[in-house]
Design a protein that fits this description.
Helix content is 35%, strand content 23%. The chain is an alpha+beta fold. Strands 7-8-9 form a three-stranded antiparallel β-sheet. Strands 1-2 form a two-stranded antiparallel sheet. A two-stranded antiparallel sheet has the order 3-6.
């Protein structure tokens, strides 16, 4: 995970099998409708795959479809000890007299992974930023947990650059997901770690209360 090694995750998807991977994806919210309150297109984990296609889903390829909101929710769940939360766009609405008309409160959605698994993932994600593929997201004096991604599409080597993570890793305040669409059109190195991670770094730096 530290160096974003595709073959490791492709192999692992094959070892786990499609049903197990799909079950975990659904635990994080794949296939489920969302409203914030506008409707959000559900993320998708595919059906009816051969072994090669299953391996590709392990690195987010083949017919895997996920929204930036879904990716941010996954990072937030890991930051939250494995518990997913219901997202909302507006925290509160106030009238002309500044009195609160409506307020959204944090609401638990589901448990995606155990507390132990969330802690292990957090440790792995901090290694990604400290000495792996996500070093461009590092902040001085603040431990950042993150994961890079570079999602190819089409047949020419075109790819979207991704980064997701949260900070501070030991006391999370903010989780983000960044996708830079069509970051490269010929696979010449514009990866998530180089293109999306610096954007996430700026967002995390602005969002952390020091």
């Amino acid at each position: 995970m530290q160096v974003s090694c595709n073959t490791s995750f492709a192999w692992l998807a094959g070892e786990l099998g499609a049903d197990s991977v799909r079950e975990q994806a659904e635990a994080f919210g794949f296939g489920q409708p969302l409203e914030v309150p506008m409707s959000v297109t559900p993320s998708i984990y595919p059906d009816e795959m051969d072994d090669a296609q299953l391996a590709l889903t392990g690195i987010g390829q083949f017919e895997v479809r996920e929204t930036p909101l879904q990716v941010a929710m996954i990072s937030a769940a890991i930051a939250n000890g494995g518990v997913t939360m219901t997202p909302y766009l507006v925290e509160e609405v106030r009238g002309s007299d500044l009195e609160v008309i409506e307020r959204n409160e944090p609401r638990t959605r589901s448990r995606a992974v155990s507390q132990e698994s969330a802690e292990q993932l957090t440790e792995m994600m901090t290694q990604v930023v400290e000495r792996g593929s996500g070093q461009s997201a590092a902040l001085p004096d603040i431990e950042v947990a993150g994961k890079t991604g570079t999602a190819e599409f089409g047949e020419s080597g075109a790819a979207h650059a991704w980064f997701t993570g949260f900070a501070p890793a030991d006391d999370p305040q903010i989780a983000v997901a960044v996708v830079v669409e069509s970051a490269t059109d010929n696979w010449v190195g514009e990866t998530g770690g180089l293109v999306a991670a610096p954007v996430a770094r700026a967002m995390l730096e602005a969002g952390v209360q020091r």
